[in-house]
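Homework help board

Subject: predicted structure for assignment chain

Our instructor gave us this sequence and asked us to write out the predicted structure in token form, then describe one feature. I got the tokens but I'm not sure how to describe them. Can anyone check?
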Amino acid sequence: MDKEEGAFLTISELAGELGLPQHILRYWETRFPQLRPLQRSGNRRYYRPADVQLARRIHQLLNVEGFTVKGAQKALADGPAPSTQPSSPPVLDDAALLRDLQAIRDRLAAALG
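My token output:
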């Protein structure tokens, strides 16, 4: 049974989602101070939605984009994470699109001419 969006995840659920061993998430907690799940009795970790999003971003930086831990720390400190949802292109009406394309054509002609 899947949890609802926004539900807290245990360390095993998050590790399973990311395809990582649990000790990697515990290691990340030592290297990324922003990653602080709730800890209950017996040190059970519960990752809030913000923690889950941050863990996904760290995973993206380290395991997909090839950052080092130090590089990922800097990337997270430098600015907000890009949205995980693909952005939709701006909606232009036909007249605006035609004006934009003509402006591009004119700039290309000037550069070539």
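Reply (TA_rk): Your tokens look well-formed. For the description, you could write something like this. The domain at 9-86 is CATH 1.10.1660.10 (Multidrug-efflux Transporter Regulator; Chain: A; Domain 2). That's the kind of observation they're looking for.
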